[in-house]
Amino acid sequence: MFIHFWYNADMEKIKKQLQIILYVWVWLLSFSAADAITDEYWITTADRGKIEQRYRNLGIYEVAKKTVSRKEEQYGNYTYRVWYPKRLETENRKWPMVFLLNGTTSTCDLDEPIFEHLASWGFIVVGNTDRNTGLGYSAEWGLELMDKLAADRKSVFFQKIDEENLGIGGHSQGGVGAVKTILFRKGGGRFKTVVTVSAVTESFADKLKMNSWKYDASAVNVPWFMVSGDRLDDRLITPLPDMEKIFQKAKTAMVMGRRSRADHSHVQAEADAYVTAWFRWQLAGDRYAGKAFLGKDAEILTNKGWNHTARKNL
């Protein structure tokens, strides 16, 4: 009897461990099997909405790139790079700034076309090589670094950052990191808006036994754009019921939606047009971009390329 009980208990433990291994394997496979984001993704991606199509294209600004820190201990031993409008170097004005946090196994170098695209629309865009961004520390260190450069007369970013218009976003684990940054990291309260793209939700965090990735959606107090795909995301990483729970719990202004027929590894590129529009509206006061989300005719609500769209407190 004792042997039988021990055998059953031990087998249950093994089954749970194998389940966790399977979840992790499927999750990592979604990245390793992914096509790289190409330089032409903004040309090859098809969109249904008129406003969406506008912000799919590159913006008017030529983009420059600068490595601002390379594996310094005080910044987590990561490399930090910044994409920005080249006109920043000569124009006496301030520019809104966005931090983008990587998904698991990714870096800003692998997703560089996304950073370049956003910068072409008039943003300073900060990325790094942190492959485990879920707690938000590399965003905190990146903000410290950019503050230092903004105060350095020898830096190209001296007095060029619009401190009143800072945004943060992230894909997958990076989406969790973006929220964690706002809620728990030093300087997180300075961010004006957040975008989460296929962020890991509570049910998947439970499967991975990653309690550190959980957060209270009701504590977020800045406008929030929450998007995902509807394939692997719906089955495992960002299930629709979890998204709906987050939406219901959130007290802030919020828009949610799922890009139709987009998988976890592709949604970052496919949803990028509306992500760009969101940041343009929130941080640059772009009224045309805001029409994608505002009013009774808000484009995202009727866009046939998206499903399960909703909004609140706008």
How would you describe this protein?
With 314 residues, the protein is α/β, with parallel strands linked by helices. The chain has 2 domains: 1-33; 43-312, Rossmann fold (3-Layer(aba) Sandwich), CATH 3.40.50. It contains 13 helices and 9 strands. The chain has a 9-stranded mixed β-sheet, sandwiched between helices. β3, α4 and β4 form a beta-alpha-beta unit. The longest helix is centred in the N-terminal third of the chain and has 31 residues, at 2-32. The chain starts with a helix and ends with a strand. 48% of the residues are buried. The model is unreliable at 2-34 (pLDDT under 50).
Which properties best describe this structure?
single chain; 314 residues; alpha/beta; Rossmann fold; 2 domains
How is this structure best summarized?
With 314 residues, the chain is of the alpha/beta class. The chain has 13 helices and 9 strands. The chain has 2 domains: 33 residues; 270 residues, Rossmann fold, CATH 3.40.50.
